[in-house]
């Protein structure tokens, strides 16, 4: 008696074929995910760079306007930025030349924020009379300071430095995420 052998066609993949296809699939998925992640990171860096460029432009335009209109710079500024004994200052105060009122504008940093104050000075004996910041009353007392406004100019400040007499140089460094954006400008005052 002869045994008949039935040939059956095997359907499906062998274990080896399955492992190869899974490996190829995981590799392709990893490549696509890596490219996607890199694209997102690049997009975020470009957005941060663009935002810092705009912030820098806005800060420097405002500083330019205030310094050019100032009657005098009341902060003692070093001549250069390379003297370690007398580094550039990070705060500047100037007499406002834009209004007819005797007031001062002060730019200063708190943590990573650049702020702009408008200040007025007067003596306690007569608060309605505004006096220069370096005045003294009959007893040698300095004037009282009143803060009129204290506004936020910008965020993302890593450092700012002012130096020079005329021109006044401003070195600004902004930082957001991993993007660091330095800028520098030299300004001439019109009124001093």
What attributes does this structure have?
192 residues, alpha+beta, 6-stranded antiparallel β-sheet, 3-stranded antiparallel β-sheet, 1 helix, 9 strands, rod-shaped
Describe the protein's architecture and organization.
The protein has 192 residues and is α+β, with helices and mostly antiparallel strands. The protein has one domain. The chain contains 1 helix and 9 strands. The radius of gyration is 32 Å and the shape is rod-shaped. The model has no long low-confidence stretch (mean pLDDT 91).
In short:
This protein has 192 residues and is α+β, with helices and mostly antiparallel strands. It has one helix and nine strands; from the N terminus they run H-E-E-E-E-E-E-E-E-E.
Which stretches are low in confidence, meaning pLDDT under 50 for 5 or more residues running?
none
Largest sheet composition: 6 strands, antiparallel
Principal-axis shape equals rod-shaped
How many separate helices?
Answer: 1
- Count of distinct structural domains: 1
Distance between the termini: 122 Å
* Alpha-beta classification: alpha+beta
Average pLDDT figure: 91
Order of helices and strands: HEEEEEEEEE
Percent helix, as a range, is 25-40%
Q: What fraction of residues sit in β-strands?
A: 25-35%
Rg, Cα atoms, Å: 32 Å
Counting DSSP E segments of at least 2 residues, the number of strands comes to 9
Strand-helix topology:
Elements: H1 15-69, E1 72-73, E2 92-95, E3 104-110, E4 113-123, E5 126-130, E6 144-154, E7 157-163, E8 168-176, E9 179-187
């Amino acid at each position: 008696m002869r045994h008949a052998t039935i040939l059956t066609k095997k359907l499906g993949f062998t274990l080896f074929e399955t492992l190869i296809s899974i490996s190829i699939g995981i590799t392709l998925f990893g490549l696509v995910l890596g490219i996607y992640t890199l694209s997102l990171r690049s997009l975020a860096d470009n957005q941060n760079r663009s935002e810092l460029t705009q912030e820098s432009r806005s800060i420097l335009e405002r500083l330019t306007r205030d310094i050019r209109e100032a009657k005098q710079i009341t902060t003692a500024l070093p001549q250069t930025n390379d003297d370690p004994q007398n580094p550039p200052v990070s705060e500047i105060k100037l007499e406002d030349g834009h209004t007819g009122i005797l007031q001062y504008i002060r730019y200063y940093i708190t943590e990573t924020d650049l702020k702009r104050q408008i200040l007025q000075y007067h003596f306690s004996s007569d608060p309605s009379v505004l006096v220069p910041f370096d005045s003294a009353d009959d007893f040698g007392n300095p004037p009282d300071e009143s803060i009129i406004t204290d506004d936020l100019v910008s965020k993302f400040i890593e450092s700012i430095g002012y130096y020079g007499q005329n021109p006044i140089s401003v070195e600004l460094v902004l930082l957001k995420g991993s993007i660091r954006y330095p800028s520098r400008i030299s300004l001439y005052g019109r009124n001093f």
